[in-house]
Amino acid sequence: MKMQKKHEGNSERWLLTYSDLITLLMILFVLLYAISNVNQDKYDKLADSLSESLGNGSNGSLSGSVSVLPGGLSVLLGGGDVLPGGNSEESNDTGNTPDINNEGGSNITDQSQNTSTKEQMQDLNDDINKIITENDLGKDISTNNYEGGLVITFPSSVFFDSGNAVLKDTMKRALDIIAVKLNEIDNDILVKGFTDNIPIKDSVFSSNWQLSAFRAANVVQYLVENAQVDGTRLMAVGCGENDPVASNDTVKGRNKNRRIEMIILANEN
């Protein structure tokens, strides 16, 4: 009888193992379910936290960030696996990291455009000098290239009598000839008038500001009305005695300061 009771007691021990197995299976399925339903907000917080801790959190987001590991996009963003030597499986054969913003290409393009603009302005400078020489327009007329365009400088004595803003007939011919070239280009043109620092006050002009402004405006008006230059491309500015190119303490210096500058502005690419 004792043997029989012992046998009956052991016959139900498998239930313990079975219940443990069922419990483990239930836990497994709960974990699988939890993993399959990721909380996006919590994931984003985790991703941001990891990004900050790894040194890529300056913009507060992983969007568009680059992996701190060499070679490719962040693994958190689904980038390629990082291989030895810093190359991604999706990188090119040269092993170089792709230039996401293509900044290098933009710089090359900008440099090319700047070079092209400088060459165009230099060609224009050569053409204007050739026109001045071939037509004997005057040795005092000079040209100068600068970063923003081309400056043609006319001494005011070539254009005007002293204290007067009426164009001389001899200079109208020069404007007619130069305007032929101006009509071949589409650049904007700024005409600036300058005087020396000797005060002027007569029945016509009350200041050097007025005298310089009227002289610049009369040059522009002649180009529009007589040389058919598009008025939308022209601007007239009176600068008075400001921005001298020589000392006003000498007669020679004052003569240089009294001038008209025709500035052909470089086109923006």
TrEMBL record:
UniProt region (Disordered), positions on chain: 80-121
The membrane-topology field of this record reads: Single-pass membrane protein
The terms describing its cellular component in GO are:
plasma membrane
Give the location in the cell.
Cell membrane
Where is the chain membrane-spanning? 15-35
Stored PROSITE patterns = OMPA_2
Give the species this sequence originates from: Anaerosporobacter mobilis DSM 15930
Q: Which Gene3D superfamilies match?
A: OmpA-like domain
Bias class Polar residues marks the residues at 93-121
Q: Which SUPFAM superfamilies match?
A: OmpA-like
Q: Which domain of life is it from?
A: Bacteria
Q: Which family does it belong to?
A: Belongs to the MotB family.
Entry keywords, A to Z: Cell membrane, Membrane, Transmembrane, Transmembrane helix
* Main localization category: membrane
OmpA-like domain segment(s): 147-268
Return the protein name.
Chemotaxis protein MotB
Alphabetical list of Pfam families matching this protein: MotB_plug, OmpA
> Sorted alphabetically, which InterPro entries does this protein's record hold?
Bact_OuterMem_StrucFunc, MotB-like_N_dom, OmpA-like, OmpA-like_sf
